[in-house]
Amino acid sequence: MPVLTVCNHKGGTGKTTSSIHLAAAFGHAGGRVLVIDFDPQGFLTRMLGASEPPPEHSALGLLDASADLASFPVQTVSGFDLIGSSMALTKALRRMTRPTDVLWLRETLQTAHDYDIVLIDTAAALSPFTMNALVASDLVVIPVTPEYQPVVGAEQTWQTCGLVQDKLNPRLSVPRFLLTQVDGRLNRHAKYAEYLRGKYGEAVLETPIRTSSSLAAASRDGRTVFDAGVTTRGAVDYRNAAKEIARHLYAAATAPPADSAAESAPAAPPEAQDVPAPPPPTAQAAPTAPASGSPAPPAERGGDGALNGHRVSGGLPAAPAAPDGGEAPRGGAERPGGVASGSDATP
Ligand SMILES: Nc1ncnc2c1ncn2[C@@H]1O[C@H](COP(=O)(O)OP(=O)(O)OP(=O)(O)O)[C@@H](O)[C@H]1O
Ligand SMILES: [Mg+2]
């Protein structure tokens, strides 16, 4: 069951719109899809017209030691299941100070269930919730509007993914940039898109999400564009992006172990696969450094050399110190969510 996180450290780049519409595209194609709103501001929950769940049934509850995905209460919206956000996430943040606090979501998502794919929407901030999502993921999609600040945020997110892959989650495959809110009339959009494609190559999805009045309206009226039909620009773009993502998930799931990857190519994906239902990825390639000699970012404040490296220099949680070098035992530590134990849920 692949886990896909939608993340960009810059705000307003289309993360929530992409989470909703990729989920709707997978659901429309017949997949069983779960969306988790891990943004404490809960815009995705509100955009879908869903009610705010009680803390223990919100995304925060997934961090509890006793959380079990198969029995976790969900709301059903627009063809997929939703675990919504709650104000309690913000309150819980100040308790999430230990390195192990980034591990709990992964544990819960590894409990038995029958979803074909899980999508996680994140806030622009690199919070412990976002880290939980990255640690639990097989793939990160980075929505990026081809403008200066979103591109900077996207490249920083790429670097974060490299660090997480190296230190915390070796399953994480190469992140994929998804161009969003693309206006074909704007030269600067073309310029930034060209910059990303030149530097990151195949890590940039071929399908751009164009500006679309129906996508903008969908965020206001609690519907997805798929509810109004599959032929609108927004529905066509997100369906094509979902197909590409499904192919990448399939390729990652069937990739040979890293040490033999150079000798045998992965099996070809099925033709025009709509629904991502690959087995969980086992061995995947790490995020790779951008191609050397690639062009500098189109300069608005000068080329930022710090963005050209793969690693971030610090400020992120260190690898957790578990006794056996693996994960901390499930339920063995007081959880930041703690909603089920009632220990300190609403300070
Ligand atoms: N392709 C599109 N065409 C038109 N409007 C869009 C498109 N994608 C997103 N928008 C609009 O842009 C705004 C920001 O989108 P969205 O909320 O998805 O971004 P976000 O990255 O989740 O923001 P935040 O960082 O605040 O969570 C919303 O009003 C949304 O309706
Ligand atoms: Mg959002």
UniProtKB/TrEMBL annotation:
Which branch of life, at top level?
Answer: Bacteria
Residue ranges, annotated region (Disordered): 257-347
CDD domains to which the protein is assigned, alphabetical? ParAB_family (cd02042)
What is a single Pfam family found in this protein's UniProt entry? AAA_31
Report biased composition (Low complexity) as residue ranges.
Answer: 257-275, 283-294, 314-326
| Location of the AAA domain | 3-173
Return the protein name.
ParA family protein
In its UniProt entry, the species of origin is given as: Rubrivirga litoralis
